[in-house]
């Protein structure tokens, strides 16, 4: 899983996940709350072994 959080007031987040069991690459971009609750839901739902986080 890779997460990119853009600097700014709107908390723009990009998420990418590679599913090796089904050979899929999933991507999403969304605006999140200041507490990043949607990012938390993504991490808990996918339960990745590794997570790369990039903040602009």
UniProtKB/TrEMBL annotation:
Residues 5-54 form the DNA mismatch repair protein MutS connector domain. GO terms for biological process: mismatch repair. GO terms for molecular function: ATP binding; mismatched DNA binding. Signal peptide: none annotated. It comes from the Eukaryota. It holds the Pfam family MutS_II. InterPro entries: DNA_mmatch_repair_MutS_con_dom, MutS_con_dom_sf. This is DNA mismatch repair protein MutS connector domain-containing protein. The lineage of its organism: Eukaryota, Metazoa, Ecdysozoa, Nematoda, Chromadorea.
